[in-house]
Amino acid sequence: MDEPSVLVVGIGVSKRGDSSAGKWIIKRLMGKTAPGVHLMEQVSDGEFLLESWRGYHTVILAGAIAGGAKPGTLFRLEAHAKPLPAVFFSRKSPATGVFQAVETAREEGLLPPRLLVYGIEGRRFKEGDKMGDVVKAATLKVAERILLDLRNLLIPAAR
Q1: 116 vs 34, 44, 112, 130, 143, CA distance in Å?
Q2: Cβ count near 125 (within 10 Å)
Q3: Crossing angle of helices 21-29/133-154, nearest 10°?
Q4: 74: CB partners within 8 A, 6+ apart
């Protein structure tokens, strides 16, 4: 059986406070993933993302959102199973374009077979803002959860 190919994408913009959460997650994952797992940083270009995930069995997206919850709140969604909630489409979040691309891909039948989305509630998104401590701490939690997802995907459970 072929090993599943996995793409993990950290979404965000450096030097824009909480928006850089996705990039921090990718940094935390470097050197800790198995062969067949590809890591990528992405700003908010949804079209580029759709091209990038072509051929992957599983795609994991991670970044900051601005939906009004308490900063540092974590969301994990199985986007292959159902649409992303409206909270992911706030104009404040730089990841909005990516999440809109996910829903466009759904409408066009272009989603990967498995698509997981991690969102970290942020509050600071302006140029020059510093990432909040709770958001920075949440990037570690998301990286740990992604590693757990990867172990579950790549190492079948003993029966």
Answers
A1: 18, 17, 10, 27, 13
A2: 19
A3: 50
A4: 118, 119, 120, 121, 138, 141, 142, 145
| Nearest by Cα to 61 from 78, 82, 85 | 78
Q: Cα dist. 121→44, 99, 105, 132 in Å?
A: 17, 14, 24, 11
**Using the 8-state DSSP alphabet, how is residue 54 labeled?**
T
Domains of the chain: 6-154 (3.40.50.1450)
Name the amino acid, one letter, at 49: L
Q: How many whole angstroms separate alpha carbon 38 and alpha carbon 8?
A: 6
| pLDDT tens figures, 7-34 | 999 988 888 888 899 999 999 999 999 8
